[in-house]
Amino acid sequence: MAGRNPVWLIGGAALVVSGVGALAPAAAQVSLAPVVDRWVYPFANTPGNRATVPIYGTGGDARFDDRDSEFYLAFPTAAAVPTGLAPGMYRVQGATLRLQIAEDLKFEYDPTSDPASTYPLNGTDPGTDSDPGRPIEVFGADFRNGFNLFSFSDLSPFKPGQPFTPPWVGVRNTFPIDFGPMGDGPARDVSSNVRGGFDAQPLAVGLTTAASPGDLVPADAVFTFALDTALPGPLGYLQTGLARGRIALAVTSMQVATEFGSGPIVYPVFYTSKAPALGFPNAITPTLELTATACPADYNADGLLNLDDLGDFITDFYLAQPIPGGVQPAAPTYAGQWVGFSVPCPTAPDAAAPYAVDAYRTRGYRVGFSADGSGSCPIAADQAFPNLDNLGDFITRYYESVTSGGC
Ligand SMILES: [Ca+2]
Ligand SMILES: [Ca+2]
Ligand SMILES: [Ca+2]
How far is the CA of 53 from the centre of ligand 2 (A)? Predict the structure, then answer.
């Protein structure tokens, strides 16, 4: 259809749309504060109400996860970009976590990941680390034991049962994940990747200008973590978080702490969002600086806006039924397990498990865009041609997006 202005018949009236080619408007960077930021560690005191959180490993102590002490943060994202669309409709131009160091000259700056083979296991140091120190790494987070992205809070326990009673391996209620060696696979628990014999792939390694590699890091140093927005696994994780309105991150490092962290401080300690209220008025609190836009006209959510989207929507409008309900708080967060659509009608039931897009496709539903995009509830599956306004709305939105270059 290149070179012609398409004409659509909507409710008997001809709609002529013209004009393409403007440049994309610049998306604004929004600085987000965490809604949850807390210590994740078997023996944490007041884990969600602390000025600082330390992170460390155990040197491969088989009783504990390798990434033993973690800093968990969750950022609400609705202030940056609307929620509720299919994850593939989100464009993430940048996402940078900033954290400030609270303790002075306790650990060496290492700006690069270290292979798992260089870490000690069962207290034995292989001695092959090629650079001083250990990196500070940030990962996505997943949940178990009934917790999810929205229920895991500052007050949630580390694990089921008594914290001082084993087991402590593989039981924590939230755990760091990556997306496989190439960053394109399903979510993988990296809590004990040294014991597991594989290299974890973080979303980012923390960098600072306050120290040179190998030097001890001074207090008040700010670490920045520019999250990976290129590989499909990390990008999908961020997009899913935007669709659901919250991005969770797990910050870890495997400096070896002694005496369950009560020995000398040889590891990073970060300020939390509560630090100013708990005696550190000048602390720089955690932020996620996010630059993202939504492109709901990318109907097939493939990252491209083109005539495929228009054709696919019109075909599905007439042939497929919409998924009822909204994005599910309990849905898993990892790639391939998402389902996204527009804001549900107030009376619509929630979509059921297993939440996966492919499961809905198999059942004959359209995915990625609510049929009732205009929000003129209700929409009933037994309506032969529900809401022609929704078809018109989509076509309008598509051409607005094309002409503004908004996607
Ligand atoms: Ca390194
Ligand atoms: Ca190193
Ligand atoms: Ca598309």
Answer: 22
143 Cα: distance to centroid of ligand 2 (angstroms): 29
Reference 175, options 138, 143, 203; nearest CA is 143
Q: Which ligand is nearest to the CA of 254?
A: 2
Span 165-174, average pLDDT: 97
Query: How far is it, in rounded angstroms, from Cα 277 to Cα 56?
Result: 25
Instruction: Identify the DSSP state of 21.
Output: -
Assigned token pair, 209: 């200008």
Ligand 2 midpoint to CA 256 (Å): 12
pTM over 0.85: no
Calculate how far, in angstroms, residue 335's C-alpha sits from the geometric centre of ligand 1. Answer: 28
**Under 8 Å CB-to-CB from 299, ≥6 apart: which residues?**
309, 310, 312, 313, 316, 368, 369, 394, 398
What is the tens place of the pLDDT at every residue in 58-72?
988 999 999 999 999
N- to C-terminal Cα separation, the chain: 20
Give residue 223 CA to ligand 2 midpoint distance, Å. 17
CA dist., res. 48 & res. 152, Å (int): 11
In contact, 167 and 221? CB cutoff 8 Å: no
Tell me, in angstroms, the distance from the centre of ligand 1 to residue 291's CA: 29
